[in-house]
Design a protein that fits this description.
- By secondary structure, the protein is α+β, with helices and mostly antiparallel strands.
- The protein has a single domain, classed as 3-Layer(aba) Sandwich (Aminopeptidase), CATH 3.40.630.30.
- It has 3 helices and 10 strands, in the order ββαβββββαβαββ.
- The strands form 2 sheets. An 8-stranded mixed beta sheet has the order 1-2-5-6-7-8-10-9, covered by helices on one side.
- A hairpin with a 2-residue loop joins strand 5 and strand 6.
- The chain is globular.
- The N and C termini lie far apart (34 Å).
- The mean pLDDT is 91.
Length: 190
């Protein structure tokens, strides 16, 4: 089932995930380079956030396709895959959150396919899916070390709704990583 073709990048299309999802996950590189951590501030644009430079490193959140196996069968969730020139290069996992918003549980694009409109096409499908379910908007989380993602969400109309300095302290008590919560509110929402 073909859902979206990106008009700016016509070679990008998005479909409901198929049996090739696991293989695509295992062969993809979802890492990104971190050069700074942003000090997020509600009411300020990402390019206005103070930056704390760090020694550059690659960051990758492990993605296990089996973690999302139940999403395919559930009525209130879905997995979509993005294709660039016919090759699977990105995915988004979306569900209905307890608060009524669509929740992007995961969004990832293979490093080789970035800057081709793949993430934007996936977010467009999330918006469509959310409207179809009459949800009030979309929410998602990223981190202050993923400034590229923060800029993307801002460009796509998301607003900063919350900052959690303690979320990752259970994993690493000294981590400078901060959770940043973004919201896309649909018309008529506060």
């Amino acid at each position: 089932m073909h859902l979206v073709t990106n008009l700016k990048y016509p070679e990008v299309s998005v479909r409901v995930a198929d049996a090739g999802f696991s293989e695509y996950i295992w062969r993809s590189d979802f890492s990104f380079e971190v050069k700074a951590h942003g000090l997020a501030e509600i009411g300020k644009r990402v390019d206005q956030w103070p930056l704390v430079p760090v020694a550059p490193y690659r960051k990758c959140y492990g993605i296990d396709p089996e973690e999302f196996a139940s999403y395919r069968a559930a009525v209130d969730s879905e997995i979509f895959m993005a294709y660039l020139d016919g090759r699977a290069v990105g995915h988004v996992v979306v569900s209905t959150n307890w608060n009524g918003f669509a929740h992007v549980d995961e969004l990832a694009v293979d490093a080789s396919a970035r800057r081709h409109g793949v993430a934007r096409a996936l977010l467009d499908v999330v918006r469509f899916w959310s409207h179809k379910k009459n949800l009030p908007g979309v929410m998602l989380e990223t981190q202050n070390n993923n400034l590229g993602a923060c800029r993307l969400y801002e460009r796509c109309g998301y607003v900063l709704g919350g900052i959690d300095h303690l979320r990752y302290r259970g994993i690493d008590a000294q981590t400078p990583e901060v959770a940043i919560f973004w919201y896309l509110l649909f018309a008529g929402q506060p």
